[in-house]
Design a protein that fits this description.
The chain is α+β, with helices and mostly antiparallel strands.
């Protein structure tokens, strides 16, 4: 090439050569930019289409808490269904940390309608066992319902068990001893007898034998307070290290936790005096009852409610249209997590905040094989807006079905009207014990039981199917159609399948529901975008073809005299043709490559904005438009103009080289 007549001639005419090169660069740049824009728009539309997926769920005669096993079987067998999400649940036990259910549903509750104080159903034990010196004891009466109590203060030196938000070593804790009915009756008798309330009430209570300065072993539980924990003007949830801890309610040390009910003994042991710097050997046979209680409570304070999903983005109440369950950080568990069996977990934002854990941290959970189903007597608190949950419990020392080491990849919260210090929070901290894992990690050999007192309750309400691990509950089942446009034909198929069953009882009576979306408007707008991008790429492909043809024509016209000289000097036609072609390619190939790569990178900064200029589709559920187009496409897109240019240049060079010298020199 160094002796090429044509090459030397082009170098002597740099302006003309530069113009031809720039024309190739610009035309290739525009073609590749438009092609990449088409690819980006197409992929973004497909990605946004996932936001508008047709998500369905089933309900029975009693709504979503019903057996929809037959309906789920029909859905599963439909060719129009992409996948189903049958969610399952069990209690899991944390290793190395306590849960964050620090308010729970386990204390005394004032009913404003009946004006009575009653114990709430026990779903979590917030008991604390500790040694402390009695530093004060005062008589008081509750503002609510005039229920009298003695307020005891202890300087805590050893915490055997308890949430750090309730009790901390080295600090003072206040414990309420509520008078029994018999003690209240005796108090009222003394008041009537003496005509005064200025009495030493402590002399007639169970704690009358306690002495200031004496060290005791004490058991207490936190007192659930919706107003204290929930409202903006409250103090918020308890915090570790608070100087004045929240008050506990005194419990008998031998109060028995049986099947998650609180059973108080006939001969209550309210305290045990212990000398300074000494402790009770709870491992001794005579203290086995105390060790059992501590073990039960420790097991319960380490428990979380494990829920599964094959794709959390398909959970109906996680959809923006429902606005019940929200992503606050990280990402949702997705289909790939389930299919690949990824060891990942999604936890409640409040759990993460209280236990000081975050995205990327790891938690360890064991799932016991034997589970017990407890039903909530009522639906969950207001933030669940009528969504019913179930509680699964396990007993300490049981066989473990699986041990999981899970990476936290996302945080969620339920919509709540309760706020404190600008944070959305739920005072019903039982909700923050919900953790979600991929369904593929859940053991298939879980054994489901019920407690004695729950069996009758379940039977009365007709919820026996909840104990059957093969049954499908409407609340915990949803599915996604392959194509939103196939919803009507899917309805028809399900109705035909249901009619073919005939009279099979109420279990065949179910309703198919879908989350309402703006899929029709979205499809109409994106179809126009895709059509516009398609027309644009066709037009620019045609323009590129014409430009490359004109560049080849201009090049050959400019090189006529050089070609004539070569022919006069006796150069063969084939040699002349190859030199014409090679010289053109020396300048055009780099120009095509530069133009193509520039167009590739430029288009990524503009194409997504064309589709979503105001980020209208960005939500906590769908965090934004992302493209994942392989870089291999740049080689394909550059190869196309190279091939076009090679064909045109080869044909033009052959045509010019085959002409006679007179035809070449003809203007």
């Amino acid at each position: 090439m160094s002796n090429s007549v044509i090459l030397r001639s082009m170098l002597r005419q740099p302006v003309q050569t530069a113009i031809l090169v720039m024309i190739i660069v610009i035309s290739t740049f525009m073609y590749v930019a438009r092609a990449v824009e088409y690819l980006v728009v197409k992929e973004c539309i497909a990605s946004l289409g996932e936001y508008y997926r047709t998500i369905g769920y089933l309900s029975g005669m009693r709504g979503s808490i019903d057996d929809v096993t037959i309906g789920a079987g029909m859905v599963r067998s439909s060719e129009y269904v992409d996948f189903e999400d049958r969610r399952r649940g069990a209690e899991g036990i944390l290793h190395g940390m306590q849960n964050a259910d620090i308010s729970s549903f386990n204390s005394r509750h004032y009913d404003f309608e009946t004006e009575e104080i009653t114990p709430l159903h026990v779903f979590r034990y917030t008991d604390a066992f500790f040694y402390g010196e009695l530093t004060g004891i005062t008589r008081n009466r509750s503002v609510v319902a005039e229920e009298p109590f003695a307020l005891l203060s202890f300087r805590v030196d050893i915490v055997i068990l308890g949430y750090p938000e309730h009790i901390v070593e080295g600090q003072t804790v206040y414990v309420r001893y509520y008078l029994s009915d018999a003690e209240i009756e005796e108090e009222n008798r003394l008041i009537d007898e003496h005509g005064s309330t200025d009495l030493e009430i402590l002399a007639i209570t169970e704690v009358s034998g306690m002495t200031l300065g004496q060290r005791y072993l004490i058991r207490g539980e936190t007192e659930f307070d919706l107003y204290r924990y929930g409202f903006t003007d409250g103090v918020g949830l308890p915090r570790i290290g608070r100087e004045i801890q929240d008050e506990l309610v005194m419990l008998p040390l031998n109060s028995r936790t049986h099947d998650w009910l609180r059973l108080n003994p006939d001969n209550a042991i309210w305290f045990i005096p212990v000398a300074a710097d000494e402790g009770i050997d709870i491992s001794s046979p005579e203290m086995e009852w105390l060790l059992t209680e501590i073990t039960n409570v420790r097991h319960d304070q380490s428990a979380v409610h494990v829920r599964t999903s094959s794709d959390m983005t398909a959970i109906p109440y996680a959809q923006p249209e429902v606005d019940l369950m929200r992503l606050t950080d990280g990402r949702w568990l997705n289909r790939e997590d389930h299919l690949n069996g990824n060891n990942v977990v999604m936890i409640h934002e409040q759990f993460a905040r209280i236990r000081n854990i975050s995205i990327g941290d790891t938690i360890s959970i064991s799932i016991p094989r034997e589970q017990y189903l407890l039903l909530f007597e009522t639906n969950l608190p207001p933030e669940m807006r009528g969504l019913t949950e179930f509680v699964y419990k396990s007993k300490p020392g049981g066989e473990i079905a699986c041990d999981l080491e899970l990476e936290i990849v996302g945080l969620f919260e339920y919509k709540s009207e309760y706020r404190y210090s600008g944070l959305v929070q739920t005072p019903f901290t039982v909700l923050n014990t919900l953790v979600y894992i991929p369904d593929s990690l859940f053991p298939d050999d879980i054994v489901m039981n019920t407690t004695e007192h729950q069996t009758t309750h379940i039977a009365i309400q007709g919820f026996e199917f909840l104990v059957d691990t093969d049954s499908v509950v409407g609340e915990w089942y949803s599915f996604v159609l392959r194509n939103p446009l196939e919803k009507n034909v899917f309805f028809y198929e399900i109705n035909e399948s249901r009619n073919s069953l005939g009279d099979t009882g109420t279990t065949a009576i179910f309703r198919v529901n879908f989350i309402e979306t703006d899929i029709d408007e979205f499809t109409a707008s994106t179809d126009k975008m895709l059509l516009s991008s398609t027309i644009t790429i066709i037009l620019f492909s045609g323009v590129l073809l014409i430009v490359l043809a004109l560049v080849a024509f201009a090049y050959l016209r400019l090189r006529r005299s050089d070609l004539a000289v070569m022919r006069i000097l006796g150069r063969p036609k084939t040699e002349c043709r190859l030199e014409l072609l090679a010289t053109l390619l020396v300048f055009s190939i780099p120009a095509i490559i530069v133009g193509g790569i520039s167009g590739w990178f430029f288009s990524f900064s503009t194409a997504a904005n064309i589709l979503n200029p105001n980020e209208d589709y960005v939500t906590s559920f769908f965090p934004g438009i992302k493209t994942d187009i392989s870089f291999a496409w740049v080689f394909i897109l550059i190869f196309i103009p190279l091939l076009m240019h090679l064909i045109i240049a080869s044909a033009g060079s052959r045509h010019s080289a085959e002409k006679s010298i007179l035809e070449i020199r003809k203007p």
